[in-house]
Amino acid sequence: ALPFLTSRSIDDAGNVAGAIRDTWQGPTDTMTILLIIGGDVVARALAQLVGPTIVPVAFSFGWVAYSFATLVNVFGDGRLIPAPDYNVKLFNVASGIPRENRSWVLGRFFRDIECPLAEGIGMNLSIYRVTSGSPPSRDWCDKSGFAFILLQLGIAAIPCGLYRNWSTLLVTGCGTLLSLITGALPQWRLEKYPGRRGRAKVVALAGGNGSRTIVVVIDPGRGMDLEDLAAAQPPTLRYGKAEKGRMILGAPIDLRVTQFACIALACLWIMLLITVTALKTNTWYLLLVGGLGMLQNVIVAGGKRAPTARGIHIEHVEEFSRKKVMHALMDAEVAYPRLGKVLLGEFFSPESLTQAEAEWWDGNEKDYDDSRPPKSKVENNDDPKAQDARQQYANIVKPPASKGAQQAL
Q: pLDDT band at residue 209, thresholds of 50, 70 and 90?
């Protein structure tokens, strides 16, 4: 029996070695598995780049999984854009009303504009002003997408020249075409930039209590309404009088068109997956194509972008960097009345204020200011740009009504 067992062991070892060798020579099964993972990376890469008609998100592993995950979303709340992955809270400075953010764009805008603070700085409050309402500008993320797509097509064409095998180029071309069609769906733009334009408004963005960065955006009426952007109503709820006569089964016709397109795209992705399983030769080229696409997706999904690339065209005006959060809010209140008061409740409770601090916020500023260390006091900013921004702020944010007027109301 021992020779028989030894012979069978040798045969089994040979079969295992042969299977491993065959896998490395033509990793078709591996590619079919890779095509159904990584859908969340594709979703984030699309959310980063959608806006223009041509969205250069490269064909990669994960598109099949993404296409089916999208069906769940569009037949649920109707969204294509994923939920924000970075916490930020928006404050309307004029009304004092806070709002939780539901916008991918606003969350990533705040993430990318934050920067490390110098040692000892407890709070940095930066003032920005909207300069225009221009469309989003192209940046390195878009350019990398076009470069990777061309590189993928070039690699896929190699088997055509060497072996007269055009299957890799066919799969790559079809995958790229389906990717571009997905990014060109009109609903992407409607979801990503739903805000109204031409409304003068001042908003403050903060990461909540404990955040060391506050971003204040003064919009004289040039850009999109960031408060509207933060609301980000789902497509199933966002329709008005113009759409009431164009409903299909209780939903806007535009949403139904998107749902039909997503079903068709999911079917086409499945057909592409089946085609990949039929490839038996030169599959390493397709594996390299998919790997490059995944690399581009990962880089873009997590990459930092300038505000202009997100459609928020702003310029830096001034900032208040202080060792104490209270001092930053106080100095901001002096330069921009009402701004500090709106933010005070986010970082301090009434019980946490000392008597001197409470008196300062009630209008008796001299006693507390005299007790502040000289190094914590900063000279008034005489820069013309800052003065102009403060005037625009004053035109938008009116001083609160007096106590007598409030009682009368």
A: confident
